[in-house]
């Protein structure tokens, strides 16, 4: 088995395992107690906080441990918004933030706050000027990830931090994907991260809040973790998280170069060995281990199953693989194809031969899925006025695009075809197909059944 | 070293350690993913949920794992209150709940809700009739611990649950101290618990919400744990928690009998070997492993240090040992002495000879502390009208009581003595001393400096 989904969760680093085992016997007691076992637990906790703070680039008393990266984000966003409530209730996020940030923003909006989502370009990056333009007099908090979790694109954090600083607005950086590779550059005010993304154990997040940032923790508190993260500290896991962060940092430069070479290989070779593929994300300003591509006429879930059977664990932002049946908000915001989407995220230590094997297996897996889907019950097709109509109502992605591709040859150049569909993914995938195929996407219209997506044949 | 503070945190049970190690290699992946590692993690999580639900006495889909018992309480209280917001915003708690419950109640009150605290008797138990009397038409939620964490007294949960059921009010039971010993009897609606109290790892709480209970999770959610506990699941720790719960339950009946015999011994022998001691908590309806007593004229922190030096780790509800410098709200609500307070909570497996050694060491440790404190700079004493006045302003507990004890012999029977003090603990300890000594506590009066506590000599 080759596990290529490190962006979801990395396998436990050997140093994390060692540190966890060692501190199970030393770190189980209550660090608030005065007796020997408590003092020992307190020493372990203090040492872990110092090590983590050094890796983050902050003071130990600016950093608390939370039960997960998600909770670090939730508590960081809520605390910073409440701390600056007098300034206003405006929150800025990028359109491609992790769902934990977007969920926190939804709660803020439901509570009467306002939220601006800053758009991204086709590579998934925000434009620092556009981000700066969203800052207002009543902006309480701005959020920006250090790098995107689905496509690996790095965000211009330092520039955005500078604009926020000039406007007097704190910037919260979700560093979940990048902290193992290095500290976040620039003048951030709050930072959140998650240990299991760098090979630490589950159950540990970090929240750093710089001195001077107004911060009012929300919800019931207790005396633990400076009143910012209630509940008994999970010290063995915290020790393992800090130790493994230090360990992966020591290997980071070398491993980054190695993984970048491997993902460059995938970026270059996939379009050569698989027809009708779009590689997404920024080609250069990106995390070393992540590469994402989408395959036309492919159902993401079936492709994942095929790859799993072939021994590869990857993930997908396609609608068919998520419980909500909507395509990834990241791919949507980038305006790229979401169907047949595959994210490959290599854990440190990935061997070149496993990547080569993946590149061997992939074309066959894609072809197999396409073959299965190539013979669906043909969608009803009828002439209506001068336009060909494809009726794909009730059919799930990628069928609407497959049916569109089948008829485009019958459309006279300059003529249009109307695709009727009610799968939400079609709204994203039909324009993306047009862009890839050099056809013109005219737009969508309401229809008696579903929505009509109008495409003009250009060539 | 003898660790006698299991009620804070129990050392890791060998079964928890084994299960944790085994699942570090199998349970690190994202259980929401479709590939092999994800499916394996999902299977572990499902099996742990089934085992935990069986031990709790609920359906697996009624139970979610949270990052701690504290978070289980916070999220349980907030979700149940929000789910019944239309009924009203009245919350009932007992006066001796764990601070996590009281903190959740404070937040509710700060948000405009109302809270009734049901008083307890001198043993720490609520009266079911008094609890039932607090139920109102606008009561959204009632909370009651299964047993008290400081004195071990068991609460009449089944009777209170029946009253709540009759009134149509859900009852949340904080079962943190008792779940390792057995399921909570009676018709509770929500239940919270904490794995590290039964020998499971840190980082795992349980929240059970019975089907049919209106529940609206608060704060940002995600798709994990039925939307009730956001953030990546800590599966190795969850597996260890469930496995160790099953293991301690298998040993519970036998171990409960053994520990009860040991705590009975402490209850009986401490007053015999240490003068001026009050053993608190219910003598019979109590947890097997907890026994708590308070020593007159003793500073809790110094006594804990002495016992730690002698090799015993215990905790204290005395004001001097907490960061807030106020005595335990539990001892306060019970109206018992808080000074020189010691809680002994025996972990399963405690050996009888260690208890015997504790009983040997204790009298000397107490005597040593008393000797040190017995020669404080004498407080100014003056006659004012017909009353003796002891000026202990600026002196910390237990000095005010020590000074009171020194002068009571000088007071004519029927006469009064006024103790001037500004330590908050005096408000609790002077009446408690009167009760123990058969003197009459007349009451308190404002004074130029501090508060005047008036005591009448009866005998």
From TrEMBL, chains A, B:
Instruction: Enumerate the UniProt keywords alphabetically.
Output: Coiled coil, Iron, Iron-sulfur, Metal-binding, Pyridoxal phosphate, Transferase
Tell me which domain of life the UniProt entry assigns to the organism this sequence originates from: Bacteria
Swiss-Prot/TrEMBL cofactor(s)? pyridoxal 5'-phosphate
Which family does the record assign?
A: Belongs to the class-V pyridoxal-phosphate-dependent aminotransferase family. NifS/IscS subfamily.
Coiled coil segments of this chain: 242-269
Q: Which reaction does it catalyse?
A: (sulfur carrier)-H + L-cysteine = (sulfur carrier)-SH + L-alanine
Task: Tell me the ranges covered by the UPF0033 domain, including all copies.
Answer: 390-414
Name a GO molecular-function annotation: cysteine desulfurase activity
UniProt name for this protein:
Cysteine desulfurase
């Amino acid at each position: 088995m080759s596990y290529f989904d490190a962006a979801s969760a990395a396998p436990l680093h050997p140093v994390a395992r060692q540190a966890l085992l060692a501190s199970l016997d030393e770190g189980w007691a209550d660090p608030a107690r005065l007796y020997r076992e408590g003092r020992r637990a307190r020493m372990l906790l203090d040492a872990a906080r110092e090590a983590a703070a050094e890796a983050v680039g902050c003071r130990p008393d600016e950093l608390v441990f939370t039960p997960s990266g998600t909770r670090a984000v939730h508590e960081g966003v809520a605390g910073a918004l409440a701390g600056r409530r007098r300034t206003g209730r405006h929150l800025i996020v990028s359109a491609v933030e992790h769902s934990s940030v977007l969920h926190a923003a939804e709660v803020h909006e439901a509570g009467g706050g306002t939220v601006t989502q800053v758009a991204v370009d086709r590579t998934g990056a925000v434009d620092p000027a556009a981000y700066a333009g969203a800052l207002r007099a009543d902006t309480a908090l701005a959020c920006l990830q250090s790098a995107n979790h689905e496509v690996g694109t790095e965000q211009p954090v330092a520039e955005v931090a500078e604009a926020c600083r000039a406007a007097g607005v704190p910037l919260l950086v979700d560093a979940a994907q990048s902290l193992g590779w290095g500290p976040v550059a620039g003048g951030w005010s709050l930072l959140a991260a998650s240990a299991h993304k760098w090979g630490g154990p589950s159950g540990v997040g970090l929240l750093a809040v710089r001195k001077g940032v107004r911060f009012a923790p929300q919800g019931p508190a207790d005396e633990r973790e400076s009143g910012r993260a209630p509940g008994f500290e999970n010290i063995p896991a915290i020790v393992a998280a800090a130790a493994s962060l230090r360990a992966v940092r020591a290997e980071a430069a070398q491993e980054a170069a190695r993984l970048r070479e491997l993902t460059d290989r995938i970026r270059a070779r996939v379009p050569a060995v698989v027809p009708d593929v779009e590689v997404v994300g920024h080609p250069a300003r990106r995390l070393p281990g992540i590469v994402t591509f989408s395959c036309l006429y492919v159902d993401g879930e079936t492709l994942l199953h095929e790859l799993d059977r072939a021994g590869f664990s990857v993930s997908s932002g396609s609608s068919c693989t998520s419980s909500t049946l909507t395509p990834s908000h990241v791919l949507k915001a980038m305006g790229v194809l979401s169907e047949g989407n595959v994210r490959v995220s290599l854990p440190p230590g990935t061997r070149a031969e496993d990547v080569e094997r993946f590149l061997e297996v992939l074309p066959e897996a894609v072809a197999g899925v396409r073959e299965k889907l190539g013979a669906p019950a043909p969608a009803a097709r009828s002439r209506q006025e001068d336009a060909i109509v494809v009726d794909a109502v009730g059919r799930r992605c990628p069928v609407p695009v497959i049916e569109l591709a089948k008829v485009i040859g019958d459309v006279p150049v300059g003529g249009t075809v109307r695709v009727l569909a009610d799968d939400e993914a079609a709204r994203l995938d039909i324009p993306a197909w047009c862009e890839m195929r050099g056809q013109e996407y005219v737009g969508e219209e309401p229809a008696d059944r579903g929505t009509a997506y109008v495409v003009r044949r250009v060539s």
